[in-house]
TrEMBL record:
It is found in: Endoplasmic reticulum membrane. It is an enzyme of class 2 (transferase). InterPro entries: Glycosyltransferase_ALG3 (IPR007873). This is dolichyl-P-Man:Man5GlcNAc2-PP-dolichol alpha-1,3-mannosyltransferase. It comes from Rhynchospora breviuscula.
Amino acid sequence: MGRNPSRSTKTLIDRFKISKGKFAFLLLCLDAILVALIISYVPYTKIDWDAYMSQVDGFLSGERDYSKLKGDTGPLVYPAGFLYVYSLVKFITGGLVFPAQILFGILYIVNLALVQFIYIRTDVVPWWVFGLLSLSKRVHSIFVLRLFNDCFAMTFLHSSMALLLCQKWYLALLLFSGAVSIKMNVLLFAPPLLLLMLKGLSFEGVLLSLLGACLLQISLGFPFLSSYPMEYISRAFNLGRVFIHFWSVNFKFVPEKVFVSKEFASALLFLHLTTLLVFAHYKWSKYEGGLIFLLRTWLKDTVSKLASFQLFSCKSRLRMLNNEHIVTVMFVGNFIGIVFARSLHYQFYSWYFYSLPFLLWKTTFPTFIRLILFAGVELCWNVYPSTFYSSLLLLCIHLCILWGLWMAPVEPSYVGEKKSHTKD
């Protein structure tokens, strides 16, 4: 008798999953060797390290006025978590660059392992695509040659996402809050994360998760909030900062006068929020009947519990979300923010590089088009300084990927839910 086709297919898939794990481990080992070679033979680039150490020295010496914590690149503009993390880094390395590079090399490998875990749990890309995660010259530089705080922020963020895939909501929100306390770019993930919380948690779950995240922010900032609160809030959470036009990688083709204007910033913010809402309604909440219906159902359930005095008597989880849906919503939501960000400096590439293979394989583009788009993004980020044409090309590639994501099939929201065969 012939072999059962479905059983043979299942066995083949299982082998591929094992192959992914083995290939991922091999990549970690090879990348660790590459990182060691980079640290040993490529000259370190002095950018922000001395400024970080100066700001940490002020903090460790007892200064709690954020307006007086400065370095050679200017005043401190990151939340308090940054100070705690780099105080620990200074303690471990003695403030020396070479030991810090080794520490950041380890951080790079830990972050890569977390991203690989996310990819394996979603099973969106084939095994060989994992190799793309180790091919960025710019990202290697950001971690071990520049020592930027973006590296810690994104490692915390990827840790939070890994916990979401394990359905550890409360701990995931704490790590997410910790990532925000290191650098605020993580807030680009906040709108999609909130949507996932509404889909996966009841009112009490959402409330307790947000409460824990807020308490962590208050605890980390307490030494500054209790002494110079306005100085801390205005500098650590300044959402209106205007970056220098010359150093921007995106929208460099826009005249500087327009680039720094409030009108341009407002237009980009409008496009960002509108695109988020459109994706949230038509893509991410499709299986629930749209965003409005999802919110209405969630609020109705909450009011019903309030009326029956059962708000905190039931489990805080509603239904188990599909892993692919979690990662899709998080990565696409962040990518939308990247597309419409007025200014992206070179270290900001780490904010979304690790999501690119996932996003490209979520589209229905042919594989060679995906690879061209991936290479195009990497090329644009390695043009220094950014030019009119490299910046314009980057925006075109971003918009092309965004269009591909919009046209892609919608994955089920919940575990056990069958994929819809209807067109988007």
